[in-house]
Design goal:
The complex is a heterodimer of chains A (154) and B (173). Chain A has 154 residues and is α+β, with helices and mostly antiparallel strands. Chain A has helices at residues 5-14, 24-32, 36-48, 61-64, 79-88, 113-127; strands at 52-59, 66-72, 92-98, 104-110, 131-134, 138-141. Chain A has two domains: 5-48, Arc Repressor Mutant, subunit A (Orthogonal Bundle), CATH 1.10.10; 61-134, Alpha-Beta Plaits (2-Layer Sandwich). In chain A, strand 3 and strand 4 (104-110) form a beta hairpin. In chain A, helix 2 (24-32) crosses helix 3 (36-48). Chain B folds into two domains: 14-57; 70-154, Alpha-Beta Plaits, CATH 3.30.70. Chain B is built from six helices and five strands, in the order H-H-H-E-H-E-H-E-E-H-E. Chain B has helices spanning 14-23, 33-41, 45-57, 70-73, 87-99, 129-143, and strands spanning 61-68, 77-85, 103-108, 120-126, 147-161. The longest helix of chain B has 15 residues, at 129-143. The chains are: A alpha+beta (154), B alpha+beta (173). Chains A and B meet through helix 1, helix 2, helix 3, strand 1 and helix 4 of A and helix 3, strand 1, helix 4, helix 5 and strand 3 of B.
Chain lengths: 154, 173
Amino acid sequence: MRLDAADRQMIDSYQRNLPVCERPYEEMARALGLTEEEVIQRLSALQEQQVLSRVGPVFEHSQAGASLLAAVAAPEEQMDLVAARINRAPGVNHNYAREHTYNLWFVMTAPDEDTLEERLDELEHQLKLPMLRLPMVEGYHIDLGFDIDWEALP
Amino acid sequence: MSTFTLKSDPVLSNRDRELIVATQSGLPLVSDPWAELGKQLDMPADEVLSRFQRMQEAGVIRRVAAVPDHYKLGYRFNGMTVWDVRDDAIAQLGEKVGCLPFVSHCYRRPRHLPYWSFNLFAMVHGISREEVEHKAAQIREVLGDACTGHTILYSSAILKKTGLRLKKQTDKQ
């Protein structure tokens, strides 16, 4: 995905924080040397193309509820079935297949710790597979993105 | 009269929850997003903005950002690098790894011996496996002797990915 210089600069400048004020896009426009209309159009287009997954708040799960990273080792031939069951389970918001014995990695969320526990127990029971439960003990760097090396991208 | 959540008081008011529901897939891309949200929520624009700002101050909103999809941009290789780090060194080393500019997430998680011996997780993205491995080597260097094992779990498919999903009213189901 090749983006022009203005799009790149906009992502570099605002992938971590954008202004929360009365007219956020106007303030971004001032900093970028664009018009507010252009900023809105560019953000809309990038969102449409799914280059931006979202323009908006990133919520802290531990404040709005509970969440936990878990993994299971699904037998190769059952992987699709197990993955589908995980995706259907209430509260699952991420599910990644990974190249490892533990081949399905997912994040379970719930409004509170007790419900989280119940949901994990229920899913583990359904899957009939031991579940690796990996709560965050400490965060050293929490999803703040990273510097994009535009020149290296295909 | 704050009804906002802190660690000790993890309860959001219904109005806050409505605002979370309305913004969890993004802010309206219009000149005055707060007025637009106010229309949806039947709330004055300035109340929308001030609730939003207070949730940000309280840490319910971690950040507000134009969040790129790295995969879509060309970072096809997502490597979850996992490390077995000595317990007495992990706090200090975790901080250091978290500071590396290419690490997007870095967490300490429990071991589950004998099945799982890795207690430090650092997410690394690359346009090739070589790039991910090169970055993992830099993490290895930071960890030094305190690290006794590691591996990289590449993602082979994203089967589901959504942001926080609160439902209207309660999330009990």
